[in-house]
Amino acid sequence: IRQEKWAGKRGQHMERKRELTKILLAESFKELLIKGSFDKITIKMITDQAGVIRPTFYNYFQDKYEVMEW
Fold it and tell me: Concatenated DSSP letters for 12-66?
């Protein structure tokens, strides 16, 4: 029972972390959008602003158009 409880809490923690990372990426995109044009924003710019590596972006979004819709 203890292991099940731990697994449940760990799963909740991981889900929360995923949610926060997605929000961080979206907020970073919004900040860049305020400063400049959509066409000039790159995935690298978004991930640099968020402080994550590029592959992390693709765990959450296909491209910047999907971030815009989210």
Answer: HHHHHHHHHHHHHHHHHHHHHHHHS-GGG--HHHHHHHHT--HHHHHHH-SSHHH
Cα 17 to Cα 2: distance, rounded to the nearest angstrom: 22
pLDDT given at position 6:
54
Taking a C-beta distance cutoff of 8 angstroms, is the pair 45, 3 a contact? no
Q: Give me the tens of pLDDT residue by residue for the chain, a chain 70 residues long.
A: 556 665 667 788 888 889 999 999 999 999 999 999 999 999 999 999 999 999 999 999 999 999 999 9
Closest CA to 64 of 20, 26, 34: 26
Cα–Cα distance measured from residue 31 to residue 50, given in angstroms and rounded to the nearest whole number: 10
C-alpha to C-alpha distance for 2 and 10, rounded to whole angstroms: 12
